[in-house]
Amino acid sequence: MPEGHTVHRIARQLGLDLVGRRLAVSSPQGRFAAGAARLDGQVLVSVEAVGKQLFCTFERGDVLRVHLGLYGAWDFHGLLTPLVPGGAAAGSLGAPRVRSVVRMGEDERESPADEGGLLAAFPPDPVGQVRVRLASDVTVADLRGPTACEVLDPEGAAAAVARLGPDPASTDDPAAAGEVMVQRLTSRNVAVGQLLMDQTVVAGIGNIYRAEMLFRARLDPHTPGGRVPVDVARALWDDWCVLLADGIRTGIMLTRDDLGAAEREAALTDPSLRHWVYHRTGLPCLVSGTPVVVEEMAGRKLYWCPTCQV
DNA sequence: ATATCATGGTAAC
DNA sequence: TTACCCTGATATT
Which SMART domains does its entry note (predicted)? Predict the structure, then answer.
């Protein structure tokens, strides 16, 4: 159940603790046995997230492509480098340490630490259906419930990336990437609420960020892309850059920007405090007081305020 | 205990 | 549009 920020955090975790190592790759569940056999014993060379997809490149050029879909997740075990807010992994705070389980897929969870018992039991037995296990001598990453999990050659991986719209966190030229999004968004007559979820227009936005970005822009989700002014489309891209960077840094989708320090603290543990409209059907809009409405748009629930978003 | 729903996407009607 | 994939949390019986 990840949006783009989660996949970038997963890529970062894999980069810190498994890249550069020779890995044992297996499929405890069995459904990825052939792919795992092909990757087994190779050095993991690099990991990159683009939108909601993860690309893990191995030394012989094989690329593992993973998409978590609605309920996929990675569970990490063993020696892990904490993802320190701010990114720096220096100092004792960022030093690798033994941790039990960090599930990355929705809100991240960590099992109670049991450091003594953990190393003794390493590697842990797979729990439930594990599609792929990537294992070094000291770190294990278990993938469960993915929508997509396949091995591609470099050309296939490049083609998969080419099918995606721009992602602010996987480009070195965010301004140019933004113009690509603006062009694609404003050249179609589909509702902007659908275009923001279209991964070929812009990559990484999911149902929560979609609803929240439209509210933050005070934009009616039904506005056809072609009727969105260019400066408004640019503002949507700029806002996505801000939200994504914040989500990658904190691991949490906090899309309200009106909270004081105490409220922000509370929102870290209470998801119901994080959003303007998402999942707030019938509750008063935090700006206008109008009840938030929900409707079905292209098979997904869309939350918005009919008073603020015009 | 059973049903429903979810931060997603594809492929088949 | 709908079915399906295949997991886990929450809601309902």
Answer: Fapy_DNA_glyco (SM00898), H2TH (SM01232)
